[in-house]
Specification:
six-stranded antiparallel sheet, alpha+beta, 191 residues, two-stranded parallel sheet, 4 helices
Length: 191
């Protein structure tokens, strides 16, 4: 069995950057890949997504057909197109857009194609805490960090409560747990 080794990074977040390395079978669909990305980053899969050759504004290539009005452009169904139909050599890049409101733009790079057998998708490495859902994209995430780092900010208590954080908890921008990411990835059926 062949596998793809990808590095996926959220564009626009630095210090630290937020990225994950995943290993997946070459014959999974883009929709299954979407679910694996969600698991690796610990997103909650509650927003629309698409894959394309370029960033937001480019014509999507693969997505799930939508019943909420975002179907005004032609795109192939991500549930039927396999990664092997698009990726063929290392260094190929692609874009994954998640949440059309917050616009989480991810850069996908195929790092390696290997002959190996895996029984579930793997998250082999990563860096940086994934931003919380619905925080307002890159600008909102930066503002959230500013508020969380300033106990005198009038929104500090409210933001911590919204995130389910206890009074003495701190948001760790470096937090990433490979074991937890792999447990989430193992739950994704590779169909």
């Amino acid at each position: 069995m062949k596998t793809f080794h990808f590095k996926i990074q959220i564009k626009g977040i630095q210090n630290p950057p937020v990225w994950r390395r995943v290993v997946v079978p070459v014959d999974i669909t883009f929709d299954t890949f979407h679910q694996i990305i969600q698991a690796a980053f610990d997103w909650s899969d509650c927003h629309l997504y698409h894959f394309s050759l370029h960033a937001w504004g480019a014509k999507p290539v693969y997505k799930i057909p939508d019943e909420e009005g975002y179907d005004d452009y032609e795109a192939e169904d991500s549930r039927t197109v396999k990664l092997s139909e698009v990726f063929s050599s290392p260094k190929q890049t692609f874009t994954y857009m998640y949440d059309f409101g917050d616009n989480w733009d991810h850069s996908i790079t195929l790092e390696k194609i290997a002959d190996e057998t895996i029984i579930s998708a793997l998250c082999t490495d990563g860096k940086g805490a994934c931003p919380p859902e619905d925080c307002g994209g890159i600008p909102g995430y930066h503002y959230l960090l500013e508020v969380l780092n300033d106990p005198k900010n009038p929104e500090h208590k409210e933001m911590k409560s919204w995130l389910g954080m206890a009074k003495n908890d701190r948001w760790d921008v470096n937090r990433f747990d490979t074991i937890a990411a792999n447990m989430r990835c193992a739950d994704i059926p590779l169909v």
